[in-house]
Fold this sequence. Notes:
Blueprint: H1 8-29, H2 34-47, H3 52-55, E1 56-58, H4 62-71, E2 75-78, H5 81-86, E3 94-95, H6 101-110, H7 114-124, E4 128-133, H8 137-148, E5 153-159, H9 167-175, E6 181-184, H10 191-207
Amino acid sequence: xxxxxxxxxxxxxxxxxxxxxxxxxxxxxxxxxxxxxxxxxxxxxxxxxxxxxxxxxxxxxxxxxxxxxxxxxxxxxxxxxxxxxxxxxxxxxxxxxxxxxxxxxxxxxxxxxxxxxxxxxxxxxxxxxxxxxxxxxxxxxxxxxxxxxxxxxxxxxxxxxxxxxxxxxxxxxxxxxxxxxxxxxxxxxxxxxxxxxxxxxxxxxxxx
Length: 208
């Protein structure tokens, strides 16, 4: 399956779309590695927004650390179930705890969002792997906090929450840490961006 295509017609459409994407953003991604280029192409393809080629920022160790985690079948943790549902063809666990009753109770008791409580729950249950945040800045802030306290074992973070409250600031906070990361500058981001990034990494890992 390529970009969700499973028939010849689907493959033809997907290939044509990628050709168009490459022609639109080639000047913006020329300095990236092939794996990084694939990530950006998939993001632009999934959003139909070439501006993302100018907004994506990838730390130098992000791809290497992410691929190592995937090859070791480490877990992927998502902030919401929509992101989890979009991640395909991974043989390891893809988890989302936002609807877990313990998480709901934890959020109420600590007066924090369920997204943040889900990250805390993962840390309390020995999570190790990649975190993908497409929607909740509070999840991103909590992941950073627990990582810096030495309470959360993170291989890398896909930090692309969308919105006008907290999203841009949380991504800049992530960018300033030592955590291998990919972010989108400003308020843009969301589920399609997070999914495109993770699925690109999975496909790159399968090719290696």
